[in-house]
Design brief:
This protein is an alpha/beta fold. It has one domain: Vaccinia Virus protein VP39 (Rossmann fold). Helix content is 35%, strand content 19%. Strand 1, helix 3 and strand 2 form a beta-alpha-beta unit. The longest helix is centred in the N-terminal third of the chain and has 16 residues. 42% of the residues are buried. Keywords: Methyltransferase, Transferase. InterPro entries: Erg6_SMT_methyltransf, Methyltransf_11, SAM-dependent_MTases_sf.
Length: 272
């Protein structure tokens, strides 16, 4: 196991990233803060709501869909989405067995009652443990920054999607190749290699090369980074320390948060 792989395994294994104060309620995402006021104290309930809001954004219009979620965290988000967003099926896949176990334990009753419609299993983003054309949607909420092979993920997502299927990915990317190399000097997770400086135009190109059409890239950073910064400041992170530099990196054009969407052609003989 490489050093980076070992760091990620420890972070999502024995260290349980979801337990640190920057997250709340068992989630592991930076939140979507559009409807949460930032001009006063932020409650833990509001922090949880920001993370739910990011899930709402990703799962919009997936009622009745067969969904594969890549990187389901501890299972809080997909468990909520299964109950509230009403997909026909939801199958989470994570590289780390400890996270898979947390997902199963947290959703034990729902999994048992679902008749196989809700499940969690181990697997890699570039080697998804599903057959061809089995899903209506492949989604990922703040996990793709860890993927070492985004091209492999794009190809696997295309493979498991049925014709007409959708891809929705929400996470942070580098806006352009020209700024790669800057973030490791500012942000600890990039310095140790846990997070990758993936340029979003290259990911869009990976999706097109895999056969997807209608690739869309939407910046939502203005509704992510100020809220996260307000929260970590409230937790005691001093200005200038690395947890406060995400907002600086965003304002300097070095990092942004995106929702990336794409669709597999409804005509099996077409690419895109």
């Amino acid at each position: 196991m490489t050093d980076v792989a070992a760091l990620r395994a420890k972070m999502y294994g024995e260290d349980d990233l979801s337990s640190i104060p920057v997250f709340a309620g068992g989630f592991i995402n930076y939140g979507y803060w559009r409807d949460i006021p930032l001009d006063g104290p932020i409650s833990e309930e509001q922090r949880v709501e920001s993370q739910l809001a990011l899930y709402r954004l990703v799962y919009a219009d997936l009622v009745g869909a067969k969904v594969v979620e890549v990187g389901p965290g501890t299972g809080v988000g997909p468990g909520w989405a299964f109950a509230e967003c009403l997909p026909a099926e939801l199958h989470g896949v994570d590289l780390h067995q400890e996270q898979v176990q947390r997902c199963v334990e947290r959703n034990r009753e729902a999994v048992a009652a679902s008749g196989g419609r809700l499940s969690f299993r181990q697997g890699a983003a570039d080697a998804l443990p599903f057959g061809d054309g089995v899903a209506d949607a492949v989604v990922s909420v703040e996990a793709a920054q860890h993927f070492d092979d985004l091209g492999g993920f794009a190809r696997e997502a295309f493979r498991v999607l049925a014709p007409g299927g959708r891809l929705v990915v929400a996470t942070f990317f580098v806006p352009h190749e020209s700024v790669v190399g800057t973030l490791p000097r500012m942000l600890e997770p990039f310095a140790d290699g846990v997070d990758r400086e993936h340029p979003v135009p290259l990911f869009a190109a990976d999706l097109a090369a895999a056969g997807f059409g209608g690739v869309g890239v939407e910046s939502i950073g203005a509704d992510v980074w100020p809220g996260l910064d307000a929260w970590v400041a409230q937790l005691g992170a001093a200005e200038g320390t690395w947890p406060r530099r995400y907002l600086t990196a965003f304002r300097d054009g070095l990092l942004d948060y995106y929702v990336v969407t794409a669709r597999k052609s409804p005509h099996p003989t077409d690419r895109g």
